[in-house]
Amino acid sequence: MESVSLQYMNDRLKMTDRKPKTVGPVITISREYGCYGSEIAQMLIEKINAHKDVEAQWEMISNVVLNKVAQNLKVNPSQISHVFGAEVKSTIEDFFTSFAISKRYVSDENVIRHISDIVTSYANKGRVVIVGRAGCVLAKHIPKSLHVKLVAPLSWRADRVAKRFDISMQDALKKVGEIDEKRSHFMNFYDGNRPESELFDVIFNRSTLTTEQIVNQMYSLAEDKGII
Fold it and tell me: Which terminus of the chain, N or C, has less C-beta within 10 A?
């Protein structure tokens, strides 16, 4: 399936090369689990919309992708969320699920294609901050773009997760490791497991920088690059 997905992505990227150069602007935020990019995105959007005389308001794109894919495929979001979490169904499970009368069957490959189309569509439309969803790969063709990654030491991230979900540090460490692995696999669907220097313009350490400092730096970089 992955080879098919990569071929599809190559075809999509060739198509985007023929698109007008007026697509975008877009900012993408990738993050290690526990770094919580949504709060960074929301603060950044509020700052942009408040300080810039923009033609249209910026918006955050994240969970809406799952809902739109589910809507397009006419399934419940829970039936396809495993793809976003990068859990891969076995061939046997995939086969028997296709005969289940209780729910509509959708292949992982089909979900991946819809994710690509929806995220790319938002990126091309512009004035969006895309959190996760392989945005750093799917929006790489856009000239006016800023690609950011949020990182932090494992212990720092686990501590944040433990407090957020009220679980033990041991359980939090396990959860962080599992989600990190799933996200890595998800990125692999889109040929995203490349050197960070090929994917990102800047990497911020959440454990040493405040949310406000990161937002201010992103805002400044977006200004300097002519994105806002």
Answer: N
CB–CB of 172/156 below 8 Å?
no
Residue at 221: amino acid letter: L
User: CA–CA separation, 219 vs 201, rounded Å?
Assistant: 13
Q: How far is CA 215 from the centre of its chain?
A: 18
The model's pLDDT over 132-190, given as tens digits with 9 standing for 90+, comes to 999 999 999 999 999 999 999 999 999 999 999 999 999 999 999 999 988 888 888 88
Q: How far apart are CA 202 and CA 39, in angstroms?
A: 18
Q: Are 132 and 37 in contact (CB under 8 A)?
A: yes
What is the rounded (10 degree) CA torsion for 45, 186, 147, 158? 70
Among residues 21, 13, 216, 23, which one has the least CA distance to residue 117? 13
- Structure confidence by residue, pLDDT tens digits, 73-124: 888 887 887 777 644 444 444 444 444 444 555 677 888 889 889 999 999 9
Count the residues in the chain.
Answer: 228
Surface-to-core class of residue 208, CB atoms within 10 Å of its CB (0-12 exposed, 13-18 middle, 19+ buried): exposed
